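Next up, sample data.

:::
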Amino acid sequence: MENQGIRDARTLGVPKMLILGLQHMFAMFGATVLVPALTGLSVSATLLFAGLGTLLFHFLAKGKVPAFLGSSFAFLAGYAAIAPNGEAELLPYACVGVACAGLLYLVLAALMRSFGTTRVMRFFPPVVTGPIIICIGMTLANSAINNCTGNWGIALVAIITVVAVSIWGRGMLRIIPILMGVLVSYALAAVLGQVDFSGVAQAAWIGMPVKMENTVFSLIGKCDMNLLVSAIIAIMPIAFATMIEHIGDMCAISSTVGENFIEEPGLHRTLLGDGLATSIASLFGAPANTTYGENTGVLALTKVYDPRVICLAAIFAILSSLCPKFSALVSAMPTGTIGGVSLILYGMISAIGVRNLVENQVDLAKSRNVIVVSLIISLALGITFSANGAISVVVGGFSLNFSGLAVAAIVGIVVNAILPGKDYEFANTYHNGKPKKKD
């Protein structure tokens, strides 16, 4: 039987469909544009490929899954490892690493298609992915504090706003706490004369969202192979965590809509869409994409699940990418605002990792689980905050730098696979299109 939410959407008419599409764009907006603000990537390219990536995802998922693909925060650690201060000349190398990470989605999708989801997911249990996610947030916390020191007053306003809207907000407001934190603290900084709007005044109203000097293609003919290979090795393992995040999001959307998207169109299709969207976006200087929980919240709020509404939001994102003046407005965001909002966001990333361990009831009374978790955390944080920030290995004349997260992810997966006593088995959350009842 066709879902009631989808049937209702088809009787709404064009005006209401447009409003619902704008609401979805509004929900993803704050977090999506914050990633380029934190990394130095192009805001316009980010919006363009968030929209294009979403449309590609819908095409590959047979137009059945109402998901929006926005900027992924998980890869912030990867960008920071290669271009810690957002250096324009280094960001293309980080983008190559993210593009290669996106290709891992394709590999996992092919494996699931060939061997089944359950058999493949045995190698990515929560005892491995949970600690990796925890460490992603923890390795970023230092940069958030550094941004806050630019203006702790503005940072505190951002933090208080996010907390207040998250706890006491109602309706749509409760779904966009990050955006509200940005708007309120940004406005206060502007009133106090602490924002330089000269770049906004000089920017054009209409322009191309992608500049070739910001893309991966700018490396052709002048590429540092050592740095390129190091970037790929450092960033690719982050995909092990984000692929699990994707699967969790698909379960959440399935639960919200009441349809079994794990089976139809299938994880192999949604992973393919997410991975291709990430790789293509990265090639053109935009952040990695990921399915957005904010938009899942909007689905739950409106009870309208028609994927066409999400496609409208994607089109609006593409149109907004054509305005360089808006991009300049985001780039002018005060560091205090960035620091305050990112302080919460980075902590939330780690909290998601903790939740991953708790909800999956990882037994830390077992020595083998404690060993896996401790190795991942110690390696990830120890290497990241060491003097060099990475492990350097010379192979065939190339000096390769392995980031803490890369080493931790690889060691965690291998050690978990070798040690006896594995008790994790990926269980389909849904049966015949309906959530299974918990005991």
